[in-house]
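PT: before anyone asks, these are the final sequences, not the draft ones from last week. 397 residues across everything. Please model them as a single complex and drop the result in this thread when it's through.
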Amino acid sequence: MRIAGAEVIVTCPGRNFVTLEITTDDGLVGYGDATLNGRELAVASYLRDHVVPLLINRDAHKIEDTWQYLYRGAYWRRGPVTMAAIAAVDVALWDIKAKAAGMPLYQLLGGASRTGIMAYGHASGRDLPEVLDSIRARREEGFRSIRVQSGVPGLDTIYGIGNPLDRTGLPNEEVWDTRAYLRHVPTVFEAVRNEFGPELPLLHDVHHRLTPIQAAKLGKALEPYDLFWMEDCTPAENQEGLRLVRQHTTTPLAIGEVFNTAFDYQTLIREQLIDYVRSAVTHTGGVTAMRKLFDHAALYQVKSGIHGPTDISPVGMAAGLHLDLAIHNFGIQEFAPHSAETYEVFRRSYTFDDGYLHPGETPGIGVTVDKDAAAKFDYEPAYLPVNRLRDGTVHDW
Ligand code: EZ4
Ligand code: CO
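LR: through. Structure below.
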């Protein structure tokens, strides 16, 4: 079975998505997600200009060989643009292989290790009453685990929540105050626990805004509220920085949504400095690379917590769900439902029922792209916000 064609689809049904469609000479079609929020066209060009020409006529079944060919063959390694492009090819080829086998992808990954995939939803509000209302709304939708983000008194925006399409043409700028945040967050979790009791799993995303010693302080302060995890508590390019956090707190740690290879986790996993791996299939080289990463993590009792914001397309989401169902060291899956417009372009077989996701039984990954619908939504430039301290210094967003 040879690759006969490959097409890059850029569409904006409420937010931008980049999808690779691969077709084979015997008529099978596979899809891979290559969406890199705020830098979408760089990946589209990487694929169109430098990868698609290499794919034509290759054996569609040779997934590992194609992965190595694109990774080692480029000479220039790693990086979000390269790894998102490789991920799109990899997922499209797994989609095709599973369709050729007549099975949902999870069967090719070893079969189901569980009956459903525990998902967590997002609750956020400018103040405490809004936060509590938002948690109630997620629970009514069926979520059994909830990430809680709150506005900080004195700051205008609820931090870490980007506007998918700001249409200003330039990134929004936000203001940040670390001391105000550190004082406020424990009071939010105290109130949430008082309202909802000890059972509900609660998560929190720090979005890389603290130094290691500040992160250690927050982790300790949150211990009474028994978090499921504290996410991206400090930038982790310097993996050794997590030793300091770990020495001071038993709050579980999740890291890695901005990482793109297993190497970014080497020290974090080997020294058991984190509890959950946050990579997305879309940003970390696809199913092939993620499977290796999770198997490595399993040796150290580190579990999965696949990134699932709405800037991962339903194609990327579905690929993650097949892994979630198959691997032994599954932890939790982030799930932010897409808009009706997005689901009009991306037809999915995955389901969300009573707090649990399932990829469905359709052969392949179970998502197809309606190209006529996609063509109705032209690409629109959009950026994530940029963050500054009160004195104007650029800070992590
Ligand atoms: O801000 O995916 O845990 N989820 C997150 C996300 C990220 C976006 C950035 O594109 O932190 O919402
Ligand atoms: Co995050």
